[in-house]
Amino acid sequence: MMNENDEKQKESFVRELGVFELRGVARQLGVPSPTTKKRDELISLILEATRNGKTTEENMQKRGRPFKKLNILDTITNKISPDKIERLDFESVVRFNQDEVVDFGIINDKTFFFEGIVRKIKDTTRMFDFKSYETIFIPSDVDYYGELSSGDRVTVEAKKLSGQNGYVVLNIIEINSLPAQDYKNNSRAYGEEIIDDRALPFDEGEVKLGRRNVYLLKEDLYENNILDKFYNKCNENKLHFIALGVNTSFENQIKLKNIGVQDNFTTVYGSDNLESFNKIIDAIVYSNNLLEKGKDVVIFIPDIIDVLRCLDEYFAEEQVNGQHTTKSIIIAQKLLSFAKSFKDGPSGTIVMCYNESDLDDKFITNDILKISKKI
User: Fold this and answer.
1) By CB neighbour count within 10 A (0-12 exposed, 13-18 middle, 19+ buried), where does 10 fall?
2) Which of 55, 127, 297, 372 could hold 214 in an S-S bridge, CB 3.0 to 4.6 Å?
3) Cα–Cα–Cα angle for 124, 130, 134, nearest 5°?
4) CA distance from start to end of the chain
């Protein structure tokens, strides 16, 4: 029997789900015609169906339909079962948006080449091509698959899935700029975290390494050479520089290109939310991958609020009263957690820019400014 607190936890979790997830859960729980029902009605019916404590399989059999295992929906329904209430985390948020059934056995003949960042989430490994933004699936029986980690930068040969969206990898050509046959995964966990006393100059202040740093923009980045100087300092100190931004102005795109930024995880103004969402996730997993391989890394974000707005628009069905969605906050928190330094090990640094008009945003004032150093 669930107590009142458990019921509240369960209801809170269900209300965090998107409408497509709600429909999937409702379908597994035997709710009739879930696609015809509104969000609030789905929530009520799901909560009612789970109060009796029956499993998904029992509910499906009760309705006289064969029970079919569906990876993502099983995960969700298990979470809201009375004895298994969990909270959303970064991996579950990403998994909700990439899980699907794919038949690798049906492919067309033409061969294509792609480059992207490996994303290993639960049972699915995929990447999104840097140029075409196509989805590329990496099956586990491909040569050198065992060397891959989430966040690796790879070049692959692939074929189009017939009658399905996406491509399937036939050969892994390069892993992190090395021929796949020569690459060995050297990721490792580092020990004690420390407070780093190193700093780099930035405008009239300084960026603390291994920390979250925030900078109030006085004018756009392309109007001056502040970013140029900082990028050069990062290179001089062998810091791996990553740019992360969405809906970036054409002028700032030119700026990033002119100063020579190689790892440019930004989208241009007017890009769709799916493309921007995948850039954000790729930047996060890529940065953590570099850190695990012993690299000192700096993530530079031209506009942190634009990143949050993009996530909110991507999860728009879950937005309430104009507030940031729970999933947006989870992804932002994962990004913020990147800032750290290890004793005798690497450091992860974040530099986030914002505008004075952003100070009415509660996440900026209550979270980011409280845990970051002002430049």
Assistant:
1) buried
2) 372
3) 55
4) 53
